[in-house]
Amino acid sequence: MVFKLFILFAKIGAFSIGGGYAMLPFIQREVIEKNHWMTFQEFSDILAISQMTPGPIAVNSATFVGYKLAGIWGSIFATLGVVLPSFLMIILIASFFAKVYEKELVKKAFMGIRPAIVGLIAFSAYGITKTNVIDFKSSAIFILGFSSLFIKKMDPIYVIIISAIIGIIVY
């Protein structure tokens, strides 16, 4: 199982462009839909924990998924799998990126990639919202948190703490 986790997360790490949030739909598809290793609710809980802990969400998610499925070794191999391709690509790309970044073809490619990444993140956000905003209370907490972040520009840590307190009270 640990080698399967390594290969799975290495594949995700190698072919997911756009950072941690862009990887979430790929992780979701592999862990929930293809392999049926956990439910969407379990995955949503892992995402919530991954966002609250320091570090990139994709790395944290891989670590928690790996731990849930195969203990400490699962977390180590899943984390290595998701990190290693990016690490190797960064070393490779950094060696010649400055030379090719100014090329018109590369600029155009990035102009196409950026909106696709936003789409991947929006897809992930939609899936998480659909399974976690399920009743009037959770809808109210969602709206309160969303508006606190975007209208009031509140610190996300405070939004998490306040939402947890509200959750304790209303549920």
TrEMBL record:
InterPro entries: CHR_Transporter, Chromate_transpt. Pfam families: Chromate_transp. GO terms for molecular function: chromate transmembrane transporter activity. It is found in: Cell membrane. It is a multi-pass membrane protein. Keywords: Cell membrane, Membrane, Transmembrane, Transmembrane helix. GO terms for cellular component: plasma membrane. The chain crosses the membrane at residues 6-26, 72-97, 109-128, 140-170. Belongs to the chromate ion transporter (CHR) (TC 2.A.51) family. This is Chromate transporter.
